[in-house]
Design goal:
Distance between the termini of chain A: 70 Å
Strand order of the largest sheet of chain A: 5-1-7-8-9-6-2-3-4-17-16-15-10
Structural class of chain A: alpha+beta
Oligomer: homodimer
CATH architecture of the largest domain in chain A: Roll
Number of helices of chain A: 7
Helix content of chain A: 10-25%
Strand content of chain A: 35-45%
Chain lengths: 379, 379
Amino acid sequence: MNFKINCDELLNKLNIIQKALPSKTSMPVLMGIKIDVYKDYMNLTTCNGDITIQSKISGEALEVNETGRCLVQGKFLIDIIRKINSKKVEMFVYENKLLIIKSERSEFKLNVMTYEDYPDIKFVNEKNKSLEPIEIESYPFRTSVKEIVFATALNEKRPILTGVLFKYENNKLTYTATDGYRLSKKETDFNGASDFKMVIPAKSLKELLNILEDFEGNIKCYIDNNKVLFEIGSTYFETRLLEGNYPDTSRIIPSDFGLFIKFNRDELMQAIDRVSLLSPQDKERNYSIVKLSVTNNRTIEISSSNQEIGDATEEIIPIDNIEGPVLKIGFNSKYLTDAIRSLPSSDVTIKFTGEIKPFVVCSNEYPDLLHVILPVKLN
Amino acid sequence: MNFKINCDELLNKLNIIQKALPSKTSMPVLMGIKIDVYKDYMNLTTCNGDITIQSKISGEALEVNETGRCLVQGKFLIDIIRKINSKKVEMFVYENKLLIIKSERSEFKLNVMTYEDYPDIKFVNEKNKSLEPIEIESYPFRTSVKEIVFATALNEKRPILTGVLFKYENNKLTYTATDGYRLSKKETDFNGASDFKMVIPAKSLKELLNILEDFEGNIKCYIDNNKVLFEIGSTYFETRLLEGNYPDTSRIIPSDFGLFIKFNRDELMQAIDRVSLLSPQDKERNYSIVKLSVTNNRTIEISSSNQEIGDATEEIIPIDNIEGPVLKIGFNSKYLTDAIRSLPSSDVTIKFTGEIKPFVVCSNEYPDLLHVILPVKLN
């Protein structure tokens, strides 16, 4: 193996595949980056058990003198290329023992790892040649995921809830996330050949979003039984899917609202933020409970009370006059701020059905996006 | 106690006194901020055992309706004032139990702590009225401290080395820091009434530097037996001094150099940085050992070797021709990068006396600043 490569291009690709490089692992071989050099292109591959990423370099950036392959400690290779102050580097394997990385004034010799120890990588479109890809536009896809992914469960009590449900039917693609205490849902128009349904782990989506941040255009998506592959330009991103039945969430979303309150978004956000400073923390779910009350004089009071520290109260005047009953409701302030954050409009509306009933946070500017929050009982 | 205060001014002062608010402590009372309100000014005071800070607010920012005092959880008071979106707040104590903080739309009630539990604060200039202050200019003082403070010891094996020695004699003020493996020293012209000598803990200096960052002009410095007080505008900053004899460092500084090498500073810095990527870490002192060699063809090679990972070599061509013997020397790369960082000139010079002798890092542009590094034995 012997090639010359443009450092910027190599670093770009290393930054992508780094997303599947585990920081610690019970399988040390996964700390390696697999380098495969062919006649006129090369592949860089990483895999952390959940995600596999492969990125291809070809064209002018690469000048292959000898094909070959090697496996090398990922962290060190990335650190070196990041710090090398050179336009091009030369890389070659010496006596099957060392990967030599040479620039004008620097020479690094990295011990190679045993290539044959690396797990066999085969992407779903190679295993199953008959898989038809679905074409997805990068920008609306990553925006939609960002708008709802925070509502997935962090703990593994119900593993299926640690992922996002993607469901396509009736020409609608819906994105659903819930941790059992809140639910976020986005609906988009979509044109697919056939219906599909899959649950992608939120952790994998986080890495996928990072890669998509720099990518405009279409992604090809190959869905298999327990894996999905995204083809993003010259990069393959494959993740396992979560198995099991995703709960039917349609029953949770209330529809018969007795009270609508329209807020100036920033004002509500800041009031919640301040009141949360003193609100009692629920250790287990790490949240702050605050109380929202509609007073008799039709203003809104947001408050929290903490025996050890003190009390906080904020008064907000809603945008429109409130029609509906007087009401007191308690909830996790983080759930409300997460929901508001994903609705960057000038105002947000909260719709209530009753004091201990789930309520909806939404905005006219985002008709396809809604957040449902389950209240907590007030003492 | 009852007053109205400008929020920005209050926050400014809270940000200053926060530096002596402990994040955790065995004396919970120190988590409080002491507020003393007088007829036309108020004091905010914090103390973490090592440092005491008191900041005064007076003038237009403050409107006192009733004098008084209270002690309140510092963290919460600061969080609230930081997030209050209001020009002014009103603060008053209610029934000796609650501190009420009121702005246009918000009301916070913080439980007060027992004021009488707070330690008695008396600054050295109040205890000893005959103490004469020394006037120090803020800018050169903080610059000099920054140039050498990193060389103090982190561990407490020799407590005196965790501080910086300030010594004034013969119209020279010298700043010295050493951890036993390297030494940094700055000499400045100074005009004082009488000689002095004190060792200030590096931790205290770090907080002092933060406060001085926003302060131009003169500081008054009152030195007592075991404490020093800095009067910085309307702020008092007092810290304990380290007791014990600071070692005589004059013997460590070599003077008879056989070899001078002048480097392009950035080139040297980057080479060291890259080579350190692979250098072996000394667990105990958390350092990377690199080797510098003068080769027969009069270029410089910087290298490191790590059995587990691999080797790195950099070649540097010095600015001037090297006169002197061939040489190989090993050292902690962090010590060299720390030294280079404090010399932001276009070139730096390293002066050697021999292979296992301390060497000096300096720059013509900073004639009053020098760094000495002790080498490590090479295998």
